[in-house]
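Review form for a predicted model. The reviewer records the input and the model, then writes brief findings.
Reviewer: anonymous (R2)
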Amino acid sequence: MQTVYVVIPNYNGVRLLAECIHSVQSGSGYFLHIVVVDDASDDASMRILQQFLRDITVIQLPENRRFAAAANVGIEYALTHGADYIFLLNSDAQVSEGCLLQLLDFMNANLRVAACQPLLVDKYSPEYIQSAGVRCSFTGRGWDNLMGARVECCPHDTEEAQKIALAPLLRTVPSPFPIVGCTGGAVFFRAEALIRTLEFEQVFDESLGMYAEDLDLAFRFHQRYAATRLPFWCIPCAMVLHSGSESTRLLGIGWKIALTEKNAVQMILRYFPAMYVGVAICVFLGTALMMALVQTFRGQPKIALATLQGVGRGLVDGLRMFKRKRVPFSYRRFYELVDWNRILPPKRTTEERVI
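Model under review:
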């Protein structure tokens, strides 16, 4: 029997943590090992976890290290305990019934696929999609594929719809489709694919912290570890209800903006072909300055300052790690994996991005 570990990084997720664990236990239809990595929460998360100690493993970090590090701790624990598959899940998400079985069946039928993800839908408006994979713009800024679109926008298999019972939100059965990368919010990894990365580096780059750590992992896979041209897939008939930013909301929007801007610079410096690096950085700086000015005129100087701070940190860190972490795409792969004709991520998108 294959061994499946569910890794749940948690930081101040007390409000939804119990629901997340219950949904995994009751909705999988498969024996699972659940590992919760608490990232030094200062709320009542550990008190909630005490209720589950007989059924789950809890790893408590002594200090807050952010999502990438917490995920790495859980993944490495799972790999050392013989995991065949690892399902990384946010603590503010709930797994729908049968979701894990559908992901497992897909991976067993497609042995060269490194990872797949369910369709993340809004917990409070489940007819709308939050993520069907991750994408990257010409300025290195990432976003979620099909974000804000209705569930019906996914590619569908109308013939298969006649054979099986339909999910309540779907008129036809959605078909799996290839994506640039899987979101870190809910992703089903093949263990042997992650082991390949650990031979040389961490699974998630902890210097990124969070926001773009999943995009960075996807880019590294495409460059170094993929056994096929299409290593990542979205399985939209498998669904996860996601609240979104539940554990980071108290940190404020300025903190998130600074981190996303910092990591956007990293994506350009690490992966863009030499001919595009300078142009992309100039365009990035121009848009960052424009956003800072708009935020200032709107009476949000703290957010404007956070934008500029993120840019500065991104340039300093990126240039320092330029030689050590640079794995540039070929021009063909750049055009396939980066939305090079888009400067800023859209607020909402209704088109799927396949490769």
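Findings: The first strand starts at residue 4 and ends at 10.
Further findings: The radius of gyration is 20 Å.
Recommendation: see findings above.
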